[in-house]
Write a structure and sequence with these properties.
The chain is α+β, with helices and mostly antiparallel strands. It contains eleven helices and 25 strands. The strands form nine sheets. It has a five-stranded mixed β-sheet with strand order 4-11-8-9-6, with helices on one face. Strand 8 and strand 9 form a beta hairpin. The longest helix has 46 residues. The chain is elongated and about 75 Å long.
């Protein structure tokens, strides 16, 4: 082994080289976007790859949009590249994503094209995958990284002899394919578990534990049928709802290392508040807004940012207050706090939220005066307790299974990443 001279590569076999991409690929290119207002330019027979087409896919077999011959002729940059070639997203949300195109296609300006008749592009697909994070970190840009053609052309990649490139690529195709199949199976299992969780909560908080009891129409669209002895109520009739209305002008400059906690939505973890991540504010700031001073047993919900995250206060050992993005909910003697927690974690809440906002997915706020009108099914207190005990146990079991599958996926992805790196840098060899 010898030092490659490239930090991300490290040592490579004696007969390998580290080469700049411009000496590996004979073709470097990109494309453009035809005038989007010209309908004659789109929905044609020419595949047109955008950066979004490279998201989480090793191969491009189809494009989300196509262009016409007139669209292609509208720009000299719109060349048709012959399959197979590497396509890499240079900027945008998909920056650094890489695929092998299995179709002849042109590309937009956010996609770089690399191809070689001499070298095995499959090997270099894996080499770019192994150095993806380093490449993105080296990119220039404002709020988002921008991988320039100059950076790509001068990016150093390990280069074994051509025959070994193919041997390594064949090996990685086989082994990563096995891992990919495992991940796909695990992902399907994960989705089933999540759907089971969602359905169980919804069915339990709207139908109860005895599925054979007589039902009636609740009269509320997002609730549907409920047992005949149940009622429904609104947040404003069963809780005291408060958000921050005082002490305006609080800034991060006032955060301290000790003092009362200032809870934000980012501190919500699996239905609880993680006080280790919560910031602190001066005692006088906590005193200024008594209506949002919180205590153990309080229920919280986020109203801004990631709307609808719910947490219960447990294990609080000091004073605490809320930032402007969180509402405090205190229940009266008609409803158990834990029961309302499960209601807010159910599709009853989201059906109402979407109904209220007309299905507008851009709504990023849960307004207090609107939330007060939220209607939910309300059984008697004994039934509420039974429901809570059931869901606490069942959902805990499901969550454990979900976390186990997530760890399997994480381990598989980590194993895949390590496998690719070790073989494309020659630290492990395939028998030729």
């Amino acid at each position: 082994m010898k030092d490659s001279g490239i930090e991300w590569i490290g040592e490579i076999p004696e007969n390998w080289l580290a080469k700049k991409a411009k000496y590996i690929f004979e073709i470097f290119g990109s494309g453009s976007t035809p005038d989007s207002g010209n309908l004659d330019f789109y929905d044609g027979d020419i595949n047109w790859i955008q950066s979004g087409d490279l998201y989480k896919t090793k191969f491009v077999n189809i494009t989300s949009k196509t262009i016409t011959e007139n669209g292609r002729r509208s720009s000299s940059a719109l060349k048709i590249y012959k399959t197979p070639f590497l396509a890499l997203a240079m900027y945008g949300a998909s920056v650094g994503n890489l695929s092998i195109s299995k179709i002849d296609a042109t590309v937009n300006q956010a996609v770089a094209v690399m191809d070689s008749e001499i070298n095995d592009i499959r090997f270099y697909y894996y080499a770019f995958e192994a150095s993806k994070q380093e490449l993105i970190a080296s990119a220039q840009g404002g709020t988002q990284p921008n991988i320039s053609q100059f950076l790509l052309k001068n990016w150093n990649l390990p280069t074994p002899p051509q025959q070994e490139q193919t041997v390594i690529a064949n090996f990685l195709d086989l082994e990563t394919g096995k891992i990919g199949n495992l991940v796909e199976f695990a992902q399907k299992s994960l989705e089933i578990l999540k759907e089971t969780r969602k359905s169980l909560i919804l069915e339990t908080v709207t139908k109860g534990l005895n599925k054979n009891v007589e039902k009636k129409d609740s009269g509320v669209e997002w609730i549907g049928q409920i047992p005949t002895d149940w009622k429904y109520s609104k947040i404003r009739y069963t809780t005291k709802l408060n958000g921050r209305i005082g002490w305006q002008g609080l800034t991060s400059d006032e955060y301290t290392d000790e003092g009362p906690y200032l809870i934000t939505g980012t501190d919500f973890i699996e239905g609880k508040v993680n006080f280790e991540t919560a910031v602190h504010v001066p005692y006088k700031r906590w005193q200024e807004a008594k209506e949002i001073q919180v205590e153990n047993g309080d229920l919280l919900i986020t109203k801004d940012g990631t709307v609808g995250k719910v947490a219960m206060i447990e294990g609080l050992d000091s004073e605490a207050s809320l930032n402007s993005g969180v509402l405090r909910i205190r229940t009266d003697n008609k409803v158990k706090t834990r029961y309302l927690y499960w209601i807010l974690n159910s599709e009853v809440f989201w059906h109402w939220f979407n109904y209220t906002n007309g299905g507008n997915s851009t709504i990023l706020h849960l307004y207090q005066n609107v939330f007060e009108k939220f209607s939910f099914p309300l059984p008697n207190l004994t039934t509420q307790i039974e429901i809570c005990e059931f869901l606490d146990n069942e959902i805990s079991t499901l969550d454990a299974a979900i976390n186990k599958v997530k760890k399997i996926i994480e381990l598989a992805e980590s194993t895949k990443k390590s496998l690719i790196y070790e073989y494309v840098t020659g630290k492990k060899r395939v028998e030729v």
